[in-house]
Design brief:
Radius of gyration: 31 Å
Bound molecules: thiamine diphosphate, magnesium ion
Structural class: alpha/beta
Helix content: 40-55%
Oligomer: single chain
Shape: elongated
Distance between the termini: 70 Å
Strand order of the largest sheet: 10-7-11-12-14-13
């Protein structure tokens, strides 16, 4: 079987010359028809023609696809340029893959395996699909919003003249379902985009007035265009197609227009579903007495009446092309394209069509309508009134379909293995972070120049102020710091310019993570390596969690610094206290998380992180087959640092390479146990002083007891799980860092873990060697107080640790 698209099997040759408009229009209409067929057939094939081992519905969304076929055909086959980047409505995935198939970038095998293992993905995925997905989508709203942040990133790199500034800028385009506009993150992004004066963004709204459950009410959407306009967007409404516009010009046409304008969505949808005869009946009943209407209807048979009444501009190729090509400036533009969900399919207009599938019988009728013979389902030219040569000739002229890869890469920026240690014997990790960043800003160099920071209105309170003072705030225009000009004393110098390296956001954590996602894809979207660092308060990770997950899902590369965290923020109190974030850090794929106790640990972790962000598996060939990438250290990823404002006495030591490696792998012995020791305390982050105090008391009774500092429960756990899997697959000698660390202890030694976060994050350590373990941590919302009061109240103070040690050693069950 020829796996790539047969239309493009001859050698590729770039085209010359332009087609005349009518010829192009008829080719685009033919492609529109083909793309509707291929998307519907791909879904049909997955649901009806493949073996179904689970007995589960495979799904796919034929109606959602049909809604967008005209728009996407016009864009991909004519309007887009290679530098444009598109976030496709999740449920239009089959349309996207069909287009890529016709353009020679998707295989037939993957279409046939749509929604199957290794096949084209349900929703376009940068990491799982192989056909040039720019932005993954799936969680509605996020794909739309990321395009505004991508445009900001494009401006950031272009204004700094990083990368290829000769090439024209791309348009960042979102193809959105109308129900996506119910998601609040859209409006957060709109506001932020306005503040940053974003350019070159298009949002194309597939306004089919249907969501998943139902036909939606019209009232809210009446507000949408003014909302965009208020935010400085240009709004283009594509309402009526050419047929309807022509009919409106006939006698009685204006009455027909006002009838449609006033027709409730539910009635319109019902009539679309019922078809021509019902349209005629309804129009005659409502407008039969109106002069001209009888003529309009009389001159058309039922099928033509139906075609006329469903001729919304979002399905009118000419109208769609006109609208897209009319835009010549870089102002953000929102296209509201009226469409019909299921257009061209028997599902059209039915309120339950979201998950609806054509029955095999309906598919046969649809096949006949498309003149596709059995066996020719995947043939590009089958059923079209144009020859295979004409089609393939045209596909070669499509500007978007450049043979060169559209997505880019960028060289790595060299990173040191540590940063100079900030001075100060007592310091918090947050303060240490601020000082390291300030030093980086001061010392300059390539690493500092590629770092870009961002924060949702907590720049100063997360200690980024020193960095910003030196590196400035990014703005498209130079803006003075008025306070500074007026010589008003302030620690903060907030000069804004295109050279600035900090992006100041309003308070919206979703926006922070979407921006980090866009910044963290800059090497792939714009060919420029950026090293993004975003700061926020740790509890508000949960506020932006879906966007954080979204960023990781696309394999964006960034460091998120979350501080303060846990009870250790003490007087700030319960609402700002985080409990579950250590668990989030462990469970989030694509994110390596750390909770350092001391600033030298942080320094080593941060230096490693800047390198880790840039890894891409490219070095895999340098590693032997046995060198398994258990921690994805070859592949790389994003990083989460959970920091604290609690000042700790810093240890006097210098990190040798072994200790540095242990810190990066997730833990080390701060007080090594004696061989065969019967007890160890394992602590993480800000509670280390309590663990140290408890440990010094324990030594009186159990002289060999050890104290381990866990810098990354996430990486320790990941490596342990990977080693376990490796052993099961026959690598008998596989051993993880956690196992090695715990090996000096007696087999029946007791363990006590303590963390200023949920105890479960360390509790698994008892399973590593099958040891008794007491896990201390925080399970309930906290309140204001001193650290001492709170640690005592929530039982993570040194007394509680001592009690847990005693109970573990004595085997008591009820030490509390
Ligand atoms: C955050 C989120 N919530 C819920 C869903 C489930 N869902 C998928 S599509 C959809 C409605 C889509 O309606 P619309 O955006 O108008 O797309 P259409 O299919 O009508 O083109 C919903 C609720 C989702 N994908 N993401
Ligand atoms: Mg919709």
């Amino acid at each position: 079987m020829a796996d790539t698209c047969p239309a493009l099997q001859e050698p590729l040759e770039r085209p010359t010359g332009h087609l005349e408009q009518p010829e192009k229009l008829s080719l685009l209409r033919a492609l529109e028809k083909k793309i509707l067929w291929l998307s519907a057939w791909t879904i049909h094939n997955a649901n009806h023609l493949r073996e179904n081992l689970d007995g589960l519905k495979v799904g796919g969304h034929q109606a959602s696809c049909a809604s967008m076929v005209t728009i996407m055909t016009a864009l991909y086959m004519d309007v887009l340029r290679p530098q444009d980047r598109v976030a496709v409505k999740p449920h239009a995935s089959p349309v996207f893959h069909a287009i890529q198939y016709l353009l020679g970038k998707q295989t037939r095998a993957k279409l046939e395996a749509f929604r199957a293992y290794g096949g084209a993905q349900s929703y376009p995925s940068r990491t799982k699909d192989s056909d040039d997905v720019d932005f993954s989508t799936g969680s509605v709203g996020l794909g739309v919003a990321i395009t505004s942040f991508a445009s900001l990133v494009q401006d950031y790199v272009r204004l700094k003249k990083m990368g290829d500034t000769e090439a024209p800028p791309g348009r960042m385009i979102a193809l959105a379902g109308d129900a996506e506009l119910d998601e609040g993150n859209i409006y957060e992004a709109l506001l932020e985009g306005w503040k940053h004066d974003i350019r070159n963004v298009w949002w194309v709204i597939d306004y089919n007035r249907q969501s998943l459950d139902a036909v939606v009410q019209d009232r809210l959407f009446g507000r949408i265009d003014s909302l965009f306009e208020t935010m400085g967007w240009h709004v283009v409404t594509l309402k009526y197609g050419k047929l309807l516009e022509a009919a409106f010009a006939e006698p009685g046409g204006e009455s027909l227009r006002s009838w449609i304008e006033n027709c409730p969505n539910s009635l319109y949808s019902t009539l679309v579903f019922r078809g021509g005869a019902t349209w005629r009946e309804q129009l005659l009943s409502d407008l039969g007495e109106t002069p001209g209407i009888a003529g309009i209807l009389g001159r058309r048979d039922d099928e033509t009446v139906a075609r006329l009444m469903t001729n919304l501009a979002g399905h009118d190729m000419e109208a769609v092309l006109e609208a897209f090509h009319s835009i010549e400036d870089d102002r953000p533009t929102c296209f509201i394209a009226y469409t019909i969900k299921g257009y061209g399919l028997p599902l059209a207009g039915h309120k339950d069509n979201h998950a609806g599938l054509l029955t095999p019988e309906q598919m046969e009728v649809f096949r006949a309508g498309n003149a596709i013979a059995p066996g020719e389902e995947w043939e590009p030219a089958a059923g079209l009134q144009i020859s295979a040569e004409t089609l393939s000739g045209f596909l070669r002229t499509v500007p978007f379909a450049t043979p060169a890869p559209r997505l880019t890469t960028a060289p790595r920026v060299a990173c040191p293995d540590r940063f100079p240690l900030p001075t100060g014997s007592r310091m918090s990790t947050q303060e240490g972070f601020g000082k390291i960043m300030t030093e980086l800003a001061r010392n300059g160099g390539a690493l500092a120049d590629h770092i870009v920071t961002a924060s949702p209105d907590v720049t100063v309170s997360t200690n980024l102020g020193g960095w910003v003072n030196r590196r400035g705030i990014f703005d498209r225009r130079d803006r003075a710091d008025t306070f500074k000009d007026h010589k008003i004393a302030s620690m903060q110098r907030w000069t804004m310019s295109p050279g600035g390296q900090h992006l100041e956001l309003g308070i919206a954590e979703n926006n922070l993570f979407l921006l980090l996602a866009a910044l963290g894809l800059s090497h792939s979207l714009f060919g420029t390596r950026l090293l993004p660092v975003g700061t926020l308060y740790d509890p508000f990770i949960q506020r932006g969690l879906d966007a954080l997950n979204y960023a990781c899902y696309q394999d964006a590369r960034f460091i998120v610094v979350a501080t303060p965290s846990g009870l250790s923020l003490a007087p700030e109190g319960g609402a700002h206290q985080s409990i579950s974030t250590p668990l989030i850090g462990m469970a989030q794929d694509g994110l390596a998380s750390f909770e350092p106790a001391y600033v030298d640990e942080l320094s080593a972790i941060l230096a490693w992180s800047f390198d880790y962000l840039q890894r891409d598996g490219g070095d895999a060939a340098e590693h032997s087959n046995d060198d398994i990438d258990w921690l994805r250290d070859i592949e790389g990823g994003a990083v989460y640092l959970r920091l604290s404002t609690r000042g700790l006495e810093q240890p006097e030591r210098s990190l040798d390479p072994v200790l540095r490696n242990d810190i990066i792998r997730g833990g080390y012995w701060l007080r090594p146990p004696e061989p065969g020791a019967k007890l160890a305390i394992l602590c993480s982050g800000a509670v280390t002083p309590e663990a140290l105090e408890a440990h010094s008391h324990i030594l009186e009774d159990i002289p060999g007891a050890g104290l381990m500092v866990i810098t990354s429960a996430d990486r320790l756990n990941a490596e342990w799980c990977a080693a376990e899997r490796a052993r099961q697959s026959g690598h008998a000698a596989a051993m993880s860092h956690a196992e090695k660390l715990l090996s000096p202890l007696a087999a029946d030694a007791g363990l006590v873990t303590v963390v200023d976060g949920h105890p479960t994050s360390l509790a698994w350590l008892g399973s590593v060697r099958g040891q008794r373990l007491r896990a201390l941590g925080v399970e309930h919302f906290g309140q204001s107080g001193t650290i001492g009061e709170l640690y005592k109240s929530y039982r993570i103070d040194s007394d509680a640790i001592l009690n847990a040690c005693a109970a573990t050693c004595l085997g008591h069950a009820n030490e509390r």
